[in-house]
Amino acid sequence: MAATYCLGRAFTALAALLLLSFGSFAASQIEDQAEQFFRSGHTNNWAVLVCTSRFWFNYRHVANTLSVYRSVKRLGIPDSHIVLMLADDMACNPRNPKPATVFSHKNMELNVYGDDVEVDYRSYEVTVENFLRVLTGRIPPSTPRSKRLLSDDRSNILIYMTGHGGNGFLKFQDSEEITNIELADAFEQMWQKRRYNELLFIIDTCQGASMYERFYSPNIMALASSQVGEDSLSHQPDPAIGVHLMDRYTFYVLEFLEEINPASQTNMNDLFQVCPKSLCVSTPGHRTDLFQRDPKNVLITDFFGSVRKVEITTETISLQQHSEMESSFKDNQMDEELMEPLKYAEQLPVAQIIHQKPKPKDWHPPGGFILGLWALIIMVFFKTYGIKHMKFIF
Amino acid sequence: MAAALPLALVVLLLLGPGGPALAEPPRDSLREELVITPLPSGDVAATFQFRTRWDSELQREGVSHYRLFPKALGQLISKYSLRELHLSFTQGFWRTRYWGPPFLQAPSGAELWVWFQDTVTDVDKSWKELSNVLSGIFCASLNFIDSTNTVTPTASFKPLGVANDTDHYFLRYAVLPREVVCTENLTPWKKLLPCSSKAGLSVLLKADRLFHTSYHSQAVHIRPVCRNARCTSISWELRQTLSVVFDAFVTGQGKKDWSLFRMFSRTLTEPCPLASESRVYVDITNYSQDNETLEVNPPPTTTYQDVILGTRRTYAVYDLLDTALINNSRNLNLQLKWKKPPENGYIHYQPAQDRLQPHLLEMLIQLPANSVTKVSIQFERALLKWTEYTPDPNHGFYVSPSVLSALVPSLVAAKPVDWEGSPLFNTLFPVSDGSSYFVRLYTEPLLVNLPTPDFSMPYNVICLTCTVVAVCYGSFYNLLTRTFHIEEPSKGGLAKRLANLIRRARGVPPL
């Protein structure tokens, strides 16, 4: 009796223990799921892709930028969230033997220009001033929406720059430069205005690591194609087009990104290994000290893709056929009829043109300088001759 | 419950105003058209036009339902109070001399001209904002349009649509010649079409073929038009035009046969379901100067004839809405073939070999009546070796005259004559048939001034070289090979003794 009682008690205790463990296991599973859901902390993705070089022999820089554009679009970031700046037109350049194409691989395998490209800033609009205005958001009010970076404090932004650079600067269109200090200050402005949640900065130029040396704002991770004192080299020339098609670092990054799909769990540490010195000749570098999360927890799709957390519902909603909004036009149809018939304008009315009078210019009252001059003259006149002499005039 | 409430609200909204449903006929319509014109130079021009007509008054507030007319442009018209808008992007130049007159030409680069309504107070401000908005829509640098490249024409650019008064104060015109047109401008242009690039004629708009052309021009034209023949009310018309000229040698590899697949690398599969008319016109007016006939395959069922740009032209019409022509199992691939009559010309050319033989060019040409035919040959002048020049090279060199042997039709038929019985001047050339007589004419010889070298130069060179050699080398030679001795001066001389005499007399020490 006592044995069964003890057994029963032990049994209930065991059951209680099991239940408790199951409960905590279930709770931790829910917690894990919740943590997974809120892991990265961002709700939208933006990309700013800049090619800063002009002239036909810098074809590879445009191909670099378009390769990243292609990957970013493929992984889900829409055109409205991409600001693409290309400093010169390679696709429709008269020297391009295959117009409307930009190839990234010899034998013309991959046309990265595509059929659906939207370039936001092109040709002479790619300047240091416009780039900084896009980043900081200080844009003239008439700028259209597609040219703005409308990010908020929950945006992850990818910034990719390529061109010719040196120790501490990047050349824009062979006529001006941006320094690493200006860039760091621009990122600090973005942080102060809460324009990003996390920022990934990739640069493919010579001595690229110098551009991220001066960053001091939090939540920035940076990658560069070469260290200070090293040159970034190009990959291969194409005999049909006649120029080098891509830079080595971006070529291997593109190969790496072609294997990523929106569901992949590849993290940043794999991106850091992308182009070792044996393939790239230069030593790619990275900087993660300003970044709060551990790079191995950061997914590639956090920056390169736009992975939305969606909840699928199976409910159906039926919509009514052809709305009633058209009926409101019916009663307004009557008042559109005009009394007299209209006619088309005559395209070249010679008689009217010959006899037209030139438009009189609008009269503007005289400005400050003229008024002041006349006031001075009149004052001198009166001081010389005095008021009492006026009676001889009038 | 919570989900049912918004559902109920939505249903209420749809059923709310108006009362019982009455299907309203659609108030906008789409017509699309492609005109293929073989050009005299062997190239082929293709002009697309997509025209959406909207019977509506856009200036009223509250227009929010857009069907075929694109919302981006409709909002522009109402926000900036536009009366007309014409925007074009062009690459290349229409060569009227080789291609004939164009339907609609546009300047190279970007051109924008706009008529505002007379309710606009600050036209310049609206113009600047409009160009910024358009630069965002079409991905072009139209934001560079400002007062430095905008003009207000006073006599030209009258409105192309319905207008009752034309105060040129409301017109603005700007051109950006440096603007490049590429796929990024074509993509938003295609997105404004109701069928995008999925059905109808717009499937042919592929960037990699459209930009491989001698001339590419795409434009957007918005204007008010008369709704009916009496013109008592207006509708808004949006025309999107695209003209390209395919080069015979680049695209056609030198052959003059064309087909839709050769030009666009696509064929037509189905008409746009939203279009009320979808047609292809092929210009089959024959070009008489080459005596070639144009054959179009498949044969057209109808033709259209009219006076276009001053000349009478015939077009073969293909209606894509005709199910006999194009349906689910058949694509439409128009083919144009030129049939030439057998050639009856002859050319023989034998190029020259230096110091061996001269050029020989023989051509047999049929000269058309009442015409001028010019034959011209380009040549280059080369230098001869200096011993090959004649003693008077500045006279020039002669090129032998050309020979023209012609069979000229006679006005009066001649009969063959007996050689022994007729005078000598009539029997110089044998007469084979009396309808034409043979004549041989010569041109003047050509005197060509060749660049002559300066023949005195060898003499000058020899003199100069010998002088230099003699002075420099000779001096060194003398310094190196001569030895020098000191010479004792001779004791006296007559002149010296006489001089000493005079000096002793003067009291000066002797020499």
UniProtKB/TrEMBL annotation, chain A:
GO terms for biological process: attachment of GPI anchor to protein; GPI anchor biosynthetic process; proteolysis. One of its GO terms (molecular function) is GPI-anchor transamidase activity. Keywords: GPI-anchor biosynthesis, Membrane, Signal, Transmembrane, Transmembrane helix. The chain crosses the membrane at residues 363-382. It is a single-pass type I membrane protein. The active site is at H164, C206. Pathway: Glycolipid biosynthesis; glycosylphosphatidylinositol-anchor biosynthesis. It is found in: Endoplasmic reticulum membrane. Residues 1-28 form the signal peptide. The keyword Lyase does not apply. GO terms for cellular component: GPI-anchor transamidase complex. Pfam families: Peptidase_C13 (PF01650). Heteropentamer. Part of the GPI-anchor transamidase complex, consisting of PIGK, PIGT, PIGS, PIGU and GAA1. Interacts with GPAA1. Interacts with PIGT; this interaction, via a disulfide link, stabilizes the expression of GAA1 and PIGK and links them to PIGS. Belongs to the peptidase C13 family. PANTHER family: GPI-ANCHOR TRANSAMIDASE (PTHR48067:SF1). This is GPI-anchor transamidase. It comes from Microcebus murinus (Gray mouse lemur).
UniProtKB/TrEMBL annotation, chain B:
Coiled coil: none annotated. The chain crosses the membrane at residues 459-480. Residues 1-23 form the signal peptide. InterPro entries: PIG-T. GO terms for cellular component: GPI-anchor transamidase complex. It comes from the Eukaryota. Keywords: Membrane, Signal, Transmembrane, Transmembrane helix. Pfam families: Gpi16. GO terms for biological process: attachment of GPI anchor to protein. This is Phosphatidylinositol glycan anchor biosynthesis class T. It comes from Microcebus murinus.
